[in-house]
Amino acid sequence: MTSSSKIAVRELPLFPLSEVVLFPTRPLPLHIFEFRYRIMMNTILESDRRFGVLMVDQAKGTIANVGCCAEIIHYQRLPDDRMKMLTLGQQRFRVLEYVREKPYRVGLVEWIEDHPPAKDLRPLAAELAQLLRDVVRLSAKLTEQQIELPEDLPDLPTELSYWVASNLYGVALEQQALLEMQDTAARLEREAEILTSTRNHLAARTVLKDTFNQKL
Question: Which helix or strand (DSSP H or E) is residue 106 part of?
Fold first, then answer.
């Protein structure tokens, strides 16, 4: 098997989702109710249980060109043939062309992967993990709630970068940019910038809260 087989193209049913970006190794629960997507999922369940998730930018009305393949792990049929399902992110892909748009989109896609790292990424990953702990600690203090990182937080740099990206909220365009990156170091560095900004913002709010409480 040659290395070119890794970039082989294939046809993939596509599921556009508004403001949702799926990352490899990350779960995505879905409720399937539209008729065309019920058709799609029933077809997929008879095949390899895989389809592509693409982010829809509602503001622009456009569909992203890079997405993530999802595999159906578990599903439950509901009345009227609706379905609840749990899917898991697999490989990323780029759409080369649409081969069909009715009753649902099917694209010709190529798989994409991160380039081999030019340096040891473990220090970057450790820095990112520490920033995560700082953000969680400050969030817990501000909200006076018990917030903890999961015990199974990934320690491999690439998987950690996907975990962080998938847990950013309300910033679908930023998530899409992270998904499209093929440089693990660049993804980790961008996430470190985002978390540093968040940490600094939370720290400032914590100081204000402490100052206010002291005056009471």
Answer: strand 106-112
Collect all residues with Cβ–Cβ distance below 8 Å to 39 and sequence separation of at least 6.
103, 104
- Give me the residue label for tokens 């009715």: 102
Spatial neighbors of 151 by CB under 8 A, at least 6 apart, are none
Q: Which pLDDT belongs to residue 5?
A: 43
Residues 51 and 13: beta-carbon distance below 8 Å:
yes
Q: Residue 39's closest CA among 101, 95, 81?
A: 81
* Residues contacting 3, CB < 8 A, separation 6+: none
Beta carbons of 111 and 103 less than 8 angstroms apart: no
Flag whether pLDDT at 170 surpasses 80. Answer: yes
Kind plus residue range of the DSSP H or E element containing 166: helix 157-166
Average pLDDT estimate for 178-194: 97
Instruction: Give the span between the Cα atoms of 161 and 169, in whole angstroms.
Output: 15
- Tokens 């909220």 identify what position? 169
